[in-house]
What we know:
Layout: H1 5-18, H2 31-40, H3 51-68, H4 72-85, E1 91-95, E2 99-103, H5 111-128, E3 135-137, E4 146-148, H6 164-180
Helix pairs in contact: 1-5, 3-4, 3-5, 4-5
Amino acid sequence: xxxxxxxxxxxxxxxxxxxxxxxxxxxxxxxxxxxxxxxxxxxxxxxxxxxxxxxxxxxxxxxxxxxxxxxxxxxxxxxxxxxxxxxxxxxxxxxxxxxxxxxxxxxxxxxxxxxxxxxxxxxxxxxxxxxxxxxxxxxxxxxxxxxxxxxxxxxxxxxxxxxxxxxxxxxxxxxxxxxxx
Length: 181
């Protein structure tokens, strides 16, 4: 395992959030879409269920997207900025599923603060461990999804959202076949 289980889980949620925007239609265009997304990610805590909350998460998505392709120095600056804005106050919390892990907001904090701090703390761990190259964009020619490479040898090229790896392998096979004829 590359990261602690809670960090890995948070990073996967960030990838899923980023990938709500790569489609032709924004998959977070309504409050109901946001509720559905948060439920699918098992994101607990208080929610306002309003347009302001939706706008704040869409703004956070843009901030996180910038980190995904940033230099180390820029990523550090952006992560620290998110932590400061959300008034992060790290503390150890114990859950039955994950054991002890860090939370930096309370469950009653605004959704933006909880989501932003959770994402920023996970990204801080990626940066701290020298793993920024694990944050990638899918290498498929017709996909722009974000991906998180948790492979041991850091070789993952394609996202999990579609059949990108399979499509690219078929394209390569057909190209080799055509070249040999």
